[in-house]
Specification:
Structural class: alpha/beta
Low-confidence stretches: none
Number of helices: 13
Shape: globular
Largest sheet: 7 strands, mixed
Mean pLDDT: 97
Number of strands: 14
Order of helices and strands: EHHEHEHEHEEEHEEEHHHHEEHEEHH
Helix content: 40-55%
Radius of gyration: 21 Å
Distance between the termini: 32 Å
Bound molecules: pyridoxal-5'-phosphate
Length: 383
């Protein structure tokens, strides 16, 4: 019997009760003072999370829309754009630039491996024309966090505009947008921000603004300049996702009440525990050690296991929803999300349910191994 679905996918993430309640109110005028105050609070709070004093734009879209806005505002058809691709979301970012006519130079990395700063430096040296570099902070499809500080430094030192997909990292994993030389960083409300999908956050450096003024791609809904002009008056150019703004305001308050350092430490703790539990169940962690993500864990199942059967059983019988693989890893991998409003007991629960399900699928006896491994990890016992 399950009473509540446990969303253990890497977004949308579970909503805390406070966030749910924040949305249970009448609609307001999106051009009135109440919305302006909410927007100001979200913008200021998000800047603290991004660690930036650059402009922070609020777009009504999913994360992909905000990534598209970066291409539309920074890239002209025919421009050389360097994209580091180490998974499905890197692929998508590169495809997005290509859709705008960019000449995309791909630094291709085997899935599960991080982008190497020396490799990036070499590609940039061989391609001196491109102004824009596209990086993925947390590659959600492989459960891997790239060494963003190093990659951004290399790209920045090479005189490039550094654009970062931080959709599934920012607010859960440390980023220092300004200190690391990141010109544009993007995140989405449905990830670590503990809000529903619908709002995206984009930080834009002065240098990116200069490029924005030069770039010639068609843009209308996602025109950053329009967005900034309206933001200065406490509004968005078009009707924003007001209900999501209520939620994002509350989610941000909760992040700041917990303290960002504590939030990051919690995510790291949950990641380690998930890794320990999956290892005890005979899964092979997919991402290279040292670069495993604190927001999502990817793992290859024991060879005899049908991933879709496992996910179906978890969902139908235990109310636990986990993700499968994406792109070329579809059907071959499990991914467990542990970002946003997720606590220790939630990790115990998902691994307990997996252990039961594996027994029902005749893969392994449910002898408490996974829960024991999770518990030991949470108690700080070395694996
Ligand atoms: N980039 C990364 C790293 C993501 O994890 C996601 C979503 O999971 C996206 C981009 C796309 O975001 P959205 O689905 O909000 O468009």
């Amino acid at each position: 019997m399950t009473f509540q679905t446990q969303l253990r996918i890497p977004g949308p993430t579970p909503l805390p009760e406070r966030v749910v309640r924040s949305m249970s109110r009448p609609m307001i005028d999106h051009r009135g003072p109440e919305f302006a105050a909410i927007m100001a609070e979200i913008t200021a709070g998000a800047k603290r999370v991004f660690k930036t004093s650059n402009d922070l734009l609020l777009l009504t879209s999913s994360g992909t829309g905000a990534l598209e806005s970066a291409i539309a505002n920074l890239v002209s058809a025919g421009d050389e754009v360097v994209a580091a691709v180490c998974g499905n979301f890197g692929e998508r970012f590169a495809a997005l630039a290509a859709a705008y006519g960019a000449d995309v130079v791909r630094l291709e990395i085997e899935w599960g491996q991080p982008v190497d700063a020396d490799d990036l430096a070499a590609v940039l040296a061989n391609h001196p024309k491109g102004k824009v570099v596209l990086l993925t902070h947390n590659e959600t499809s492989t459960g891997l966090t790239n060494p963003l500080r190093d990659l951004a430094r290399v790209a920045h030192d090479a005189g490039r505009i550094v654009v970062v997909d931080g959709v599934s990292s920012i607010s859960s994993i440390l980023i220092e947008t300004d200190a690391w030389g990141i010109d544009v960083a993007v995140s989405g409300s449905q990830k670590g921000w503990m809000a529903p999908p619908g709002l995206a956050l984009v930080s834009v450096s002065p240098w990116a603004w200069e490029q924005q003024a030069r770039a010639r791609s068609p843009r209308f809904y996602f025109d950053w300049k329009e967005n900034k002009t309206w933001a200065e008056r406490g509004m968005t150019p078009f009707t924003p996702a007001v209900g999501v703004a209520f939620a994002l305001q509350e989610g941000l308050r909760m992040l700041e009440e917990e303290g960002l350092d504590n939030v990051y430490a919690r995510h790291a703790r949950l990641a380690r525990a998930t890794q320990a539990g999956l290892g005890a169940l005979g899964f092979q962690l997919f991402a290279q050690e040292g670069f495993r993500s604190n927001t999502v864990t990817s793992a290859l199942p024991p060879t005899t296991l049908d991933v879709s059967a496992l996910r179906k059983l978890l969902n139908d019988k235990y109310g636990v929803v986990i993700a499968g693989g994406q792109g070329k890893m579809t059907g071959k991998m499990v991914r467990i999300g542990h970002l946003g409003a997720v606590a220790e007991g939630d990790v115990v629960q998902v691994l307990w349910a997996m252990e039961q399900a594996l027994e029902e699928l005749d893969i392994a006896p449910a002898d408490g191994r996974a829960v024991a491994a999770v518990t030991a990890s949470l108690q700080g016992v070395p694996a």
